[in-house]
Amino acid sequence: MKVSRSAFWSLRLVTYGVIGLMYLPLVIILVLSFNASSSISWPPKSFTTKWWATIIDVASAREALTTSVKLAMIAVLIAIVLGTLLAFALQRFDFYGKNAVSFLAVLPIALPGIVTGVAMRNAFVRLGLDLGLLSVVAGHATFCIVIAYNNVAARLRRMASNVREASADLGASGWQTFRYVTWPLMRGAVVSGGILAFALSFDEVVVTTFTAGAGVETLPQWILNNFSRPNVLPYVTVVATLVMAISLPLAWFAQRLSDGGESKAGR
Amino acid sequence: MAVAGAERRLTGFLRARPRAGLVATITAPLAWLVVVYLGSLAMLVVSAFYKLDEFTGKSNGQFSFENITVVVTKGVYRSLMLRSVLVATAVTVLCLVIALPVALYISRLASKWAKRGMIVALLLPLWSGYLVKVYALRAVFAPGSDFGSGGFLNGTFGWSPGFGYVAVVLTLVYLWFPYMLLPMYAGLERLPNSLLDASSDLGAGSLRTFRSVIMPMLVPSIAAGSIFTFSLSLGDYITVRVVGGTAQMIGNIIERVLLAPNQPLAAAFTLWPVGIMLAYLALMARLGAFENL
Question: Where are the domains of chain A?
Fold first, then answer.
C-alpha cells in the first residue's frame, strides 16, 4: 500500500502509542506491588519488598490459587475432549444443521458472561443441585469448549487430505491413520487450545461468581473480594503481578505451538 | 491378533456406515451443549414467568407475566437498558476507531519482523487477566482526594475523569480492543495486494482506495470483532463496580436482584441482554460476521 509520508508517520505513531498504552496500566500495577503504603496513590512515596516477601503467608490467596488451578484443570479436560470431538464432527462430516451446531458452540462466548452465569445458577438451583465446585466446572467447561474447538478445527481445516489418503493407500486402518498421521499433526493444536482454555478459565470471574457455592473462592474472586480492603490491598497488586507473570509466558508458548504446527500440517 | 481383528472390523464398519463416525464424534459435545447450555437458557426463559412468593422467597409455581411486565415497562429499567446499550455501542465504535489505524499499519506498512513482534505485543495483554486490568485502570483513574494524590492520571497530570461512565467506557475499550483488532488484522492480511495496485492504477488516491476497496472488504471482519466488543461490554458489571463510581448498567441490577434473592425477576432482566444480543448477532450475520469468527 502506498501512503503519503505524513500518513505513514501518523499511523506509525498511533500504533506505537496504542501498544504503549496497553502496557502502561500493567507497569503501574507492577510498581504499586512495591508500594510501601497500602493505597493506589500515584506516585508512590517509598518502596518495600515486604508484600512480595510475605505473600506466601496469605492463606486465603494460596487456597484461592489451588481452587483456580483445580477448577481450570477439570474444566479444560472436559472442554478438550468435547471440543476435539466437535471439531472432528464438523470438519469431517456434512450433515443437516451443521451451521446451527457451530453457532451453538460459539454462543456461550458470544452472549455476555452474566447470561451464562445467571442461566446456569438458575438451572442448578431449580433442579435442586448444590452450588459448589462442580457447578463452576460445568459453567467453565461450557465456554471453554469453543476455544478447544476453534484451535483443533482450524488445524483440521488446514491439514491436507492427501496425507490421510496416502496413509490409507499404504494399507493403514482408520485407527492407524489417526494414531500415526492425524494425531501427531493435530497434537499441538489440542495442547495450545488447552492452554488458551486454561487461561480463560483461570481468569473468568462472572460465570464463577454466579455458579460458585459458599466456600468456593477462585483467584479472580479473591482479587475482587479483597481490592477494597486496605490491609489486603497491597497483596492484590502482588497477586495481580503474579497472574501476569504466569499467564503471559503461557500465552506466548501456546501461540508458538499453534504457529509451529501450521507449517508441519502441510499445504 | 484379536485386537487387530477388532480394529479391522471397526474400520470396515465405519467405512460401510460413514454416519456412524459422525454419531460417535458429535453425540457427546452436542449433548453437553444442548442439555447443559441450551437447557439452562430454556429454564431461564421459563423462570422469568414465575412469581416470587413474598414469604418463602422461592418461586411459587404460578405462571405470571408480572416480572416481564416490570422489566419491559418500568421507565427506570428501560433507561438502564438504554444506557447499557449506549455504553456498549460507544465502546464498539471507539474500539473500531482505534483498531483501524493500528491494523492498517501492522498489516500493510510495518516491516515483516516488526509485524510479528507487534502482533504478539498487542495480544499478550489479552492474557494478563481481566481483573488485573480492571484493577490497574482503577489505579489509573482514581480521583485525587484530601488524603492522597489519586491514581496515575491525577498524580501525574493533575487531572482525571474520575470514576463514572467515562472511566467505564475507557476501561472497556482497553479490555476488549484486541478482540476488534485481531479479526480486522486478519481481514487486511487476506486482502490481495493486486487489488490495491489495481485501485491505484485506475487513479485512486490512498483515501479513495481505503474507502472504496479496503473498507467494504473489511465489513465482515469488523462485524465479527464487534460481536465481542459489544457483548462483553453489554453484560459487564464488574468494571462498572470497580471504576464506575455511582454508574449502573444492566449487569449490576441483575446481580443485585439475583442475590436479593429474586431469581425469577433476575431471569426476566437477563432476557434483555439475551434479546439484544440475538438481534445483534442476526444483524452481524447479515454482514458476514460468521465467516470470520
Answer: 59-264
Domain spanning A59-264: CATH superfamily: MetI-like (1.10.3720.10)
CB distance A140 to A71 below 8 Å:
yes
Of the two residues A20 and B127, the one the predictor is more confident about is: A20
Inter-chain touch B130–A15, beta carbons under 8 Å: no
Which ipTM score applies to this complex? 0.86
The alpha carbon torsion through A10, A15, A21, A23 (nearest 10 deg) reads -150
Distance from CA of A41 to the nearest CA of B (A): 5
Q: Do B32 and A141 touch (CB under 8 A)?
A: yes
Query: CB–CB of A82 and B138 under 8 A?
Result: no
User: By CA distance, what is B154's nearest residue in A?
Assistant: A42
Architecture, CATH, for domain B74-291: Orthogonal Bundle (1.10)
Cβ contact (<8 Å) for B39 and A19? no
pLDDT tens digits, one per residue of B35-66: 999 999 999 988 888 877 655 556 666 777 88
Residues of chain A in contact with residue B267, where contact means CB-CB under 8 angstroms, are: 118, 122
Which chain A residues are within 8 Å of B123, Cβ to Cβ?
251, 255
The minimal CB distance from A118 to the residues B21, B44, B231 is found for B44
The alpha-carbon gap from B75 to the nearest alpha carbon of chain A, in Å, equals: 22
Q: What pLDDT, in 10s, does the model give residues A119-159?
A: 999 899 888 888 888 999 999 999 999 999 988 988 888 88
- CATH 1.10.3720.10 positions along chain B are 74-291
- Interchain contact, A120 vs B123, CB within 8 Å: no
Query: Which of B120, B141, B115, B203 has its CA nearest to residue A251?
Result: B120
CB-closest option in B11, B206, B228 to A7: B206
